[in-house]
Design a protein that fits this description.
alpha/beta; Nucleotidyltransferase, domain 5; 2 domains; 6-stranded mixed β-sheet; 12 helices; 46% helix; globular; RNase_H-like_EbsB-rel
Length: 280
């Protein structure tokens, strides 16, 4: 936020100001110069993001300089709207870089999913997975939560692991457990979401995996063959909070624990918080 407020992000306009030879047109709309004001406020892409989240800026501040505009808008919001504003700025910059460096053009819906939990399509189940990792004991807890297109909890589970080398292995194990339990529950079409971008990328990659954790990644790839459809998405912590709460709750269990059509009370509360936010 500090870099955005002070215009210290490398927009095309700023790069051109520093005499770099770049095409300074916004990659989202292809209509205007990519300044910080444009990409974070005026572009139709970010405008749709804010509109879909029912966040509206005071019209009286439109003529202000960028830094003053951000201050006025931020101070006019409640706590939840402030969080949405900050995370949206971050998601826009992430989407912008993904478009420029990887050629992947994100939709508004994908960016919203990146920021917070969103329901899967009809006839799909969404599984959010996460882990906690104890670096001193080399132990981790896998947590995974399944919800349907109505946002209702279908199942949940926590599994402890020993001899875990690092946090990446902990996330990979959580992903594997999520896939295996989905197959055991006879779910056919599943969207798996986790907040480890490295795990999502390596599981989704077509090339061979030669890292230390490659056996786990290969096990995941083999396991999903038992599903009719399996999609792996990266999601920010805001959209993965239920699984995060579940993984922390799993510290209280010495053995694997599973729930059908329910979850621990703290996870249910987190899910209800999402439903309230979605309703608002």
């Amino acid at each position: 936020m500090w870099r955005i407020i002070n215009n210290f992000v490398p927009t095309y306009a700023n790069l051109q100001f520093r005499r770099l030879n770049v095409n300074n047109v916004c990659n989202f709309c292809l209509l205007s110069t990519e300044t910080v004001e444009h990409i974070m406020r005026d572009c139709c892409f970010v405008g749709e993001l804010f509109a879909r989240q029912n966040v509206h800026f005071p019209s009286s501040s439109a003529a202000l300089e960028w830094k003053d505009w951000v201050a006025v808008a931020f101070c006019s919001f409640n706590d939840q709207q402030k969080i949405v504003m900050m995370v949206t700025f971050w998601a826009v910059w992430y989407s912008r870089n993904k478009l420029i460096h990887e050629g992947i053009s994100p939709s508004v819906s994908e960016s919203l999913s990146f920021m917070r939990w969103s329901a899967p399509a009809l006839n799909f189940v969404k599984c959010n997975f996460d882990s906690t990792f104890d670096v001193q004991c080399n132990e981790s807890i896998s947590g995974f939560l399944y919800r349907n297109s109505d946002g209702l909890i279908m199942a949940a589970g926590v599994v402890p692991h020993k001899n875990v080398a690092d946090a990446f292995m902990a996330e990979a194990l959580a992903c594997l457990q999520a896939v295996l339990f989905a197959i055991e529950l006879c779910f056919r079409r599943v969207v798996f979401e986790g907040e480890s971008l490295a795990v999502v990328r390596r599981v989704s990659a077509l090339s061979s995996d030669y890292f230390v954790t490659s056996p786990i990644v290969n096990d995941i790839r083999d396991a999903v063959k038992g599903l009719e459809s399996a999609v792996f998405n990266f999601v920010h912590r805001e959209g993965n909070n239920d699984a995060h709460v579940l993984a922390r709750e799993g510290r209280g269990f010495r053995l694997p624990r599973f729930w059908i059509e329910e979850a621990p009370p703290c996870v249910t509360t987190a899910a209800l918080d999402w439903e309230k936010l979605n309703a608002d």
